[in-house]
Protein backbone atom coordinates (compact mmCIF):
# COMPACT_ATOMS: atom_id res chain seq x y z
CA UNK A 1 0.00 0.00 0.00
CA UNK A 2 3.00 2.30 -0.22
CA UNK A 3 3.47 5.13 -2.70
CA UNK A 4 6.39 3.33 -4.34
CA UNK A 5 4.11 0.33 -4.99
CA UNK A 6 1.40 2.30 -6.78
CA UNK A 7 1.52 2.30 -10.57
CA UNK A 8 0.13 5.39 -12.29
CA UNK A 9 -1.92 4.69 -15.42
CA UNK A 10 -4.60 6.48 -17.47
CA UNK A 11 -7.28 4.82 -15.34
CA UNK A 12 -6.06 6.55 -12.16
CA UNK A 13 -3.95 9.50 -13.37
CA UNK A 14 -6.59 12.15 -12.66
CA UNK A 15 -7.07 10.87 -9.11
CA UNK A 16 -3.31 10.90 -8.54
CA UNK A 17 -3.13 14.47 -9.83
CA UNK A 18 -5.81 15.56 -7.36
CA UNK A 19 -3.99 13.93 -4.45
CA UNK A 20 -0.80 15.66 -5.53
CA UNK A 21 -2.64 19.00 -5.31
CA UNK A 22 -3.35 18.51 -1.60
CA UNK A 23 -3.61 20.57 0.54
CA UNK A 24 -4.63 23.06 -2.18
CA UNK A 25 -8.05 21.51 -2.71
CA UNK A 26 -10.96 23.86 -3.52
CA UNK A 27 -13.16 22.25 -0.87
CA UNK A 28 -12.72 20.46 2.46
CA UNK A 29 -13.45 17.09 0.83
CA UNK A 30 -12.42 15.07 -2.21
CA UNK A 31 -14.27 11.94 -3.28
CA UNK A 32 -12.53 9.14 -5.17
CA UNK A 33 -14.99 6.62 -6.56
CA UNK A 34 -14.75 3.49 -8.64
CA UNK A 35 -15.39 -0.26 -8.73
CA UNK A 36 -13.87 -2.75 -6.33
CA UNK A 37 -10.27 -3.49 -7.22
CA UNK A 38 -9.60 -0.23 -9.09
CA UNK A 39 -6.95 0.95 -6.60
CA UNK A 40 -8.82 3.69 -4.71
CA UNK A 41 -8.04 2.10 -1.33
CA UNK A 42 -4.36 2.05 -2.24
CA UNK A 43 -4.60 5.73 -3.15
CA UNK A 44 -6.22 6.34 0.22
CA UNK A 45 -3.23 4.78 1.93
CA UNK A 46 -0.82 6.83 -0.19
CA UNK A 47 -2.59 10.03 0.89
CA UNK A 48 -2.74 8.81 4.46
CA UNK A 49 1.05 8.41 4.48
CA UNK A 50 1.41 12.04 3.38
CA UNK A 51 -1.27 13.56 5.59
CA UNK A 52 -1.01 11.17 8.59
CA UNK A 53 -4.79 10.92 8.47
CA UNK A 54 -6.59 8.13 10.35
CA UNK A 55 -8.94 5.85 8.40
CA UNK A 56 -12.61 5.55 9.38
CA UNK A 57 -15.31 3.33 7.92
CA UNK A 58 -18.49 4.91 6.62
CA UNK A 59 -20.66 2.24 8.20
CA UNK A 60 -19.33 2.99 11.68
CA UNK A 61 -18.75 6.73 11.38
CA UNK A 62 -21.52 7.50 13.87
CA UNK A 63 -19.60 5.57 16.55
CA UNK A 64 -16.54 7.83 16.47
CA UNK A 65 -16.16 11.34 17.88
CA UNK A 66 -15.47 13.65 14.90
CA UNK A 67 -13.28 15.88 17.05
CA UNK A 68 -11.13 12.88 17.94
CA UNK A 69 -10.83 11.86 14.29
CA UNK A 70 -9.55 15.28 13.23
CA UNK A 71 -7.42 15.86 16.31
CA UNK A 72 -4.54 13.73 15.03
CA UNK A 73 -3.79 15.31 11.66
CA UNK A 74 -6.72 17.56 10.73
CA UNK A 75 -7.39 15.06 7.95
CA UNK A 76 -9.41 11.85 7.68
CA UNK A 77 -9.83 9.07 5.12
CA UNK A 78 -13.38 7.71 5.07
CA UNK A 79 -13.54 4.27 3.45
CA UNK A 80 -16.90 3.21 1.94
CA UNK A 81 -18.18 6.73 2.48
CA UNK A 82 -21.31 6.02 0.45
CA UNK A 83 -22.49 3.72 3.21
CA UNK A 84 -23.46 6.70 5.32
CA UNK A 85 -26.29 7.40 2.86
CA UNK A 86 -29.74 6.54 4.16
CA UNK A 87 -28.58 6.11 7.76
CA UNK A 88 -29.51 9.30 9.68
CA UNK A 89 -26.90 8.88 12.41
CA UNK A 90 -24.11 8.27 9.91
CA UNK A 91 -25.18 11.18 7.74
CA UNK A 92 -25.18 13.46 10.78
CA UNK A 93 -21.72 12.20 11.73
CA UNK A 94 -20.30 12.91 8.24
CA UNK A 95 -22.03 16.30 8.23
CA UNK A 96 -20.38 17.29 11.51
CA UNK A 97 -17.03 15.89 10.37
CA UNK A 98 -17.23 17.90 7.14
CA UNK A 99 -18.08 21.11 9.01
CA UNK A 100 -15.27 20.58 11.49
CA UNK A 101 -12.80 20.02 8.68
CA UNK A 102 -14.02 23.13 6.88
CA UNK A 103 -13.83 25.31 9.98
CA UNK A 104 -10.34 24.09 10.92
CA UNK A 105 -8.83 24.08 7.43
CA UNK A 106 -8.73 20.28 7.40
CA UNK A 107 -9.58 17.79 4.68
CA UNK A 108 -11.55 14.60 4.13
CA UNK A 109 -10.72 11.98 1.49
CA UNK A 110 -13.91 10.04 0.80
CA UNK A 111 -13.60 6.65 -0.92
CA UNK A 112 -16.70 5.19 -2.53
CA UNK A 113 -17.89 2.68 -5.09
CA UNK A 114 -20.41 5.18 -6.45
CA UNK A 115 -20.14 8.88 -7.33
CA UNK A 116 -21.72 11.24 -4.78
CA UNK A 117 -24.50 12.05 -7.27
CA UNK A 118 -25.78 8.52 -6.68
CA UNK A 119 -25.62 8.57 -2.88
CA UNK A 120 -29.18 8.66 -1.60
CA UNK A 121 -28.57 11.04 1.25
CA UNK A 122 -31.56 12.29 3.18
CA UNK A 123 -29.77 15.16 4.91
CA UNK A 124 -30.04 18.01 2.42
CA UNK A 125 -27.20 20.09 3.89
CA UNK A 126 -24.81 17.15 3.70
CA UNK A 127 -25.92 16.32 0.18
CA UNK A 128 -25.25 19.84 -1.04
CA UNK A 129 -21.80 19.98 0.58
CA UNK A 130 -20.60 16.64 -0.79
CA UNK A 131 -21.94 17.31 -4.28
CA UNK A 132 -20.23 20.72 -4.35
CA UNK A 133 -16.85 19.16 -3.54
CA UNK A 134 -14.72 17.62 -6.32
CA UNK A 135 -15.29 13.96 -7.16
CA UNK A 136 -12.93 11.93 -9.35
CA UNK A 137 -13.55 8.53 -10.84
CA UNK A 138 -10.94 5.77 -10.74
CA UNK A 139 -11.54 3.34 -13.57
CA UNK A 140 -11.04 -0.41 -13.56
CA UNK A 141 -7.47 -1.31 -14.56
CA UNK A 142 -6.81 -1.78 -18.25
CA UNK A 143 -4.60 -4.50 -19.75
CA UNK A 144 -1.43 -2.44 -19.55
CA UNK A 145 -1.90 -1.64 -15.86
CA UNK A 146 -2.92 -5.19 -14.94
CA UNK A 147 0.08 -6.59 -16.80
CA UNK A 148 2.42 -4.19 -15.01
CA UNK A 149 0.88 -5.07 -11.64
CA UNK A 150 1.21 -8.81 -12.31
CA UNK A 151 4.87 -8.43 -13.31
CA UNK A 152 5.56 -6.39 -10.18
CA UNK A 153 3.76 -8.81 -7.87
CA UNK A 154 5.75 -11.70 -9.30
CA UNK A 155 8.97 -9.71 -9.00
CA UNK A 156 8.18 -8.96 -5.34
CA UNK A 157 8.29 -12.73 -4.83
CA UNK A 158 11.52 -13.06 -6.83
CA UNK A 159 9.66 -14.73 -9.70
CA UNK A 160 10.07 -14.03 -13.41
CA UNK A 161 7.22 -15.54 -15.45
CA UNK A 162 7.20 -15.49 -19.22
CA UNK A 163 4.99 -12.98 -21.01
CA UNK A 164 2.92 -15.86 -22.36
CA UNK A 165 1.77 -16.50 -18.79
CA UNK A 166 1.00 -12.81 -18.20
CA UNK A 167 -1.03 -12.69 -21.42
CA UNK A 168 -2.92 -15.84 -20.46
CA UNK A 169 -3.81 -14.44 -17.03
CA UNK A 170 -5.00 -11.14 -18.49
CA UNK A 171 -7.59 -12.88 -20.63
CA UNK A 172 -8.97 -15.12 -17.89
CA UNK A 173 -8.58 -13.60 -14.43
CA UNK A 174 -10.97 -11.26 -12.65
CA UNK A 175 -10.07 -7.74 -13.71
CA UNK A 176 -9.10 -6.14 -10.43
CA UNK A 177 -5.90 -5.35 -8.59
CA UNK A 178 -6.98 -7.46 -5.62
CA UNK A 179 -7.56 -10.43 -7.91
CA UNK A 180 -4.05 -9.99 -9.33
CA UNK A 181 -2.65 -10.35 -5.82
CA UNK A 182 -4.68 -13.48 -5.14
CA UNK A 183 -3.69 -15.09 -8.45
CA UNK A 184 0.03 -14.41 -8.00
CA UNK A 185 -0.02 -15.74 -4.42
CA UNK A 186 -1.89 -18.87 -5.47
CA UNK A 187 0.45 -19.52 -8.40
CA UNK A 188 3.49 -19.08 -6.16
CA UNK A 189 2.14 -21.61 -3.64
CA UNK A 190 1.15 -24.10 -6.31
CA UNK A 191 4.55 -23.85 -7.97
CA UNK A 192 6.33 -24.43 -4.66
CA UNK A 193 4.08 -27.29 -3.58
CA UNK A 194 4.28 -29.20 -6.88
CA UNK A 195 7.86 -28.21 -7.74
CA UNK A 196 6.60 -26.99 -11.10
CA UNK A 197 7.64 -23.93 -13.08
CA UNK A 198 5.25 -21.08 -13.70
CA UNK A 199 3.52 -22.13 -16.90
CA UNK A 200 0.17 -21.67 -18.59
CA UNK A 201 -0.98 -25.24 -17.70
CA UNK A 202 -0.24 -24.53 -14.03
CA UNK A 203 -2.07 -21.21 -14.27
CA UNK A 204 -5.06 -22.97 -15.82
CA UNK A 205 -5.25 -25.32 -12.83
CA UNK A 206 -4.80 -22.52 -10.30
CA UNK A 207 -7.47 -20.32 -11.87
CA UNK A 208 -9.88 -23.25 -11.92
CA UNK A 209 -9.18 -23.82 -8.23
CA UNK A 210 -9.71 -20.17 -7.38
CA UNK A 211 -12.95 -20.16 -9.31
CA UNK A 212 -14.13 -23.16 -7.35
CA UNK A 213 -13.21 -21.49 -4.07
CA UNK A 214 -10.24 -23.77 -3.43
CA UNK A 215 -7.50 -21.17 -3.77
CA UNK A 216 -6.90 -17.73 -2.27
CA UNK A 217 -4.45 -16.58 0.34
CA UNK A 218 -5.24 -19.20 2.96
CA UNK A 219 -4.05 -22.71 3.61
CA UNK A 220 -6.31 -25.69 4.20
CA UNK A 221 -6.90 -24.75 7.81
CA UNK A 222 -8.30 -21.34 6.89
CA UNK A 223 -5.33 -19.52 8.39
CA UNK A 224 -3.57 -16.72 6.59
CA UNK A 225 -0.15 -17.81 5.39
CA UNK A 226 3.00 -15.75 5.64
CA UNK A 227 5.05 -15.72 2.43
CA UNK A 228 8.48 -17.30 2.70
CA UNK A 229 11.49 -15.24 1.70
CA UNK A 230 13.65 -16.80 -0.96
CA UNK A 231 15.28 -16.00 -4.25
CA UNK A 232 13.93 -17.91 -7.21
CA UNK A 233 13.87 -17.23 -10.93
CA UNK A 234 11.66 -19.05 -13.40
CA UNK A 235 10.70 -18.64 -17.00
CA UNK A 236 7.25 -19.80 -17.98
CA UNK A 237 7.20 -21.48 -21.36
CA UNK A 238 3.52 -22.40 -21.57
List the helices and strands and how they pair.
Blueprint: H1 13-21, E1 29-33, H2 40-51, E2 55-57, H3 66-71, E3 75-79, H4 88-104, E4 107-112, H5 124-132, E5 135-137, H6 143-156, H7 163-172, H8 177-194, H9 200-211
Helix pairs in contact: 6-8, 8-9
Structure description:
GO terms for molecular function: DNA replication origin binding. Residues 211-238 are annotated as: Disordered. This is Hda lid domain-containing protein. Residues 156-207 form the Hda lid domain. InterPro entries: Hda_lid, P-loop_NTPase. This protein is α/β, with parallel strands linked by helices and 238 residues long. The chain folds into two domains: 3-137, Rossmann fold; 143-211, Helicase, Ruva Protein, domain 3 (Orthogonal Bundle), CATH 1.10.8. 45% of the residues lie in helices and 9% in strands. The protein has helices at 13-21, 40-51, 66-71, 88-104, 124-132, 143-156, 163-172, 177-194, 200-211, and strands at 29-33, 55-57, 75-79, 107-112, 135-137. It has a five-stranded parallel beta sheet, sandwiched between helices.
Helix share, percent:
40-55%
CATH class of the largest domain: Alpha Beta
Distance between the termini: 31 Å
Give unreliable regions as ranges: 214-238
Output the CATH homologous superfamily of the largest domain.
Answer: P-loop containing nucleotide triphosphate hydrolases
Features:
single chain; 238 residues; alpha/beta; Rossmann fold; Helicase, Ruva Protein, domain 3; disordered C terminus
In short:
Residues 156-207 form the Hda lid domain. One of its GO terms (cellular component) is plasma membrane. With 238 residues, the protein is α/β, with parallel strands linked by helices.
Amino acid sequence: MGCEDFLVAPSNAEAVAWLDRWPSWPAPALTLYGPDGCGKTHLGHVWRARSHAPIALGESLDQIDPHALLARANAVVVEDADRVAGAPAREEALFHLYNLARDSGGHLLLLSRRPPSRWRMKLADLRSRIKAAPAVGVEAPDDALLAAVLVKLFADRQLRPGMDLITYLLTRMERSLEAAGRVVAALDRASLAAHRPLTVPLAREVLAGLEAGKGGDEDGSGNRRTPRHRVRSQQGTG
